Amino acid sequence: MTEFMQRAIVDSYFRTRIWIAALTVVAVLGFLIVRLWQLQLIERESYSELSEHNRMRLIRLWPARGRILDAQGRVLAENRPSFTLSVAPGELRDRAQMVRTYAPVLGIPQERLRKQLERSGQAPRFMAYPLKKNLSMEEVSLTKALAPEIQGVVLETRANRFYPFGETMCHVLGTLGEISPRELAEKSDQGYRPGDLIGKTGTEREFEPYLKGLEGWERIEIDAKGRQFANISRQDPSRGADIELTLDASLQQYVEEVFIERAGSVVVVDPDTGRVLAMVSKPGFDLNLFSPALTERHWKTLNNDPLHPLENRSIRGLYSPASTFKVVTTAAALAERKVRPDERFTCKGKMELAGQVFRCWNHYGHGSVDLRRAIVESCDIYFYHVGLKLGPELLAKYASLFGLGTPSGISLPHELPGLIPTEPWKRRTYGEPWKDGETIAVAIGQGYLVSTPIQLAMMTAALANGGKLFKPSIVRRIRAEQGPVIYEHSPVIRWQIPLEDNAWHLLDSALRGVVSEKAGTGERARVRGVPVAGKTGTSQVIRIREGGAEGETVPYHERTHAIFIAYVRDMPKRIAVVVLVEHGGPGGRNAAPVARKIISHYYGAPDPGDPQQ
Fold first, then answer.
1. Do 266 and 207 lie in a common domain?
2. Is the predicted pLDDT of residue 230 greater than 70, yes or no?
3. Partners of 566 in the beta sheet?
4. What angle do CA 430, 433, 438 make, to 5 degrees?
5. What burial class does residue 404 get, using C-beta atoms within 10 Å of its C-beta: 0-12 exposed, 13-18 middle, 19+ buried?
6. Which of 116, 152, 525, 598 could cross-link to 91 by cystine, CB 3.0-4.6 Å?
């Protein structure tokens, strides 16, 4: 190989290496240029924010929830300060260390705390996510001592709900609970974050937008270990509005004291405004069990209770109105002129129809009775005849006019509408024709017909005020914090029941006779010096047993419900009351005395049933 060829090979080798080196440099420079372009232009805002948050922390300031007051201004729900241990997900560097250190301090199993930290990743990186609320003072002290060791731990001050009256008005006031993923998705644009408390039932839920308030924030400067240097800026939170109810706490407490039954409902309303003065559903529960969070043990106890204490029977309990419905049948018969007030039917204790025997509650019969006497003594046979004259459609029409079968419109969530059966409904539901036996069952408030205590209360109020069916109200006023009144209740009349004055007078006279006359079924509701009108009802749970067995010989869940509706109209202040005792037996025996006590207390009259008076 010549010297020339050797030099050519060497030159070619070096030129190749130079090209490779040059291309490598160009590629590296190109990558750097592209990356710089990406960092400077595309990801500039992201890294700028990250850099800012390396020295800043945004602390959320929770607003105090609005208070709930009774009609006299007594506090029913308020706030008490508490400490919450939270974590800033974007600052937490060592989750394993966090779990090992804080699990024993907080009394939380390590696996559960680990899952909570995983969920915290769904929150904004530099927004604190709550891990445990309502820390004890010992837990607060230990948390403060350990906080400098683990970056990202935040000790926050929050307000827990406190209910001074405990169980009183529990179903009306309602409960709070941690916001669910579904609620969070629906309300994320309203300022809610994971771990927030939100109204779940009752007033707390229905008026959540007013009670919630507006959150504030504080921007602080921190060092690499998360220690605070200075406050940069702050926006104070705004407390939620106060809700003033129409209910009177002292009356409510009295009603709860005298209504010692195992289960049932009492509703007391003002018949001239539709305002609810007391609403009791038993059994109840202590609202403070839910603040700050219901324990698993308490949840199982409440949820597994066969009497369902979490259910508001006043708006969700479905019961046959029984003989209290006879006022509707009477109103329909008079308005449609199907019977004359002096028209008589003979009651022999039973009646045969289409091969079936239908009985009166009085097995010996009432003899020949007119309309007024049939109401006073609650004769079933009389109203069987009237029901057949009316038919199912007219019965349904006037039931609707008295507010049955549709939600009353009260400002509480999950109210049930009840049911007014009709011939088309029967065909749709069961694919069967309507029978006359079903008509006479509805005429005395039985059969498929069901209603709620709040519906019966508004029906009773309409009897007291001459036919005005009000929308019930539990909120009297809403007032912003140190600000104006946002809402003031004005009575809302849904409609006027079309009944002539003489029909109202006959009904009123008969319903007074139910209480004041010797043969009246509601004599146990008499109050000295107070003209009480009322109507008893005994709502069947199962078909009446042959022989009419009742009391302790019948299993509890098979006993009839006791119902009594009552009102007072000829007094300076009027009142309407509904008492329903689940499986309480005859209404005149077990529900009427409760109504008597409530009315006596309301008017300051002596209670003839009280041995101390």
1. no
2. no
3. 534, 577
4. 90
5. buried
6. 152
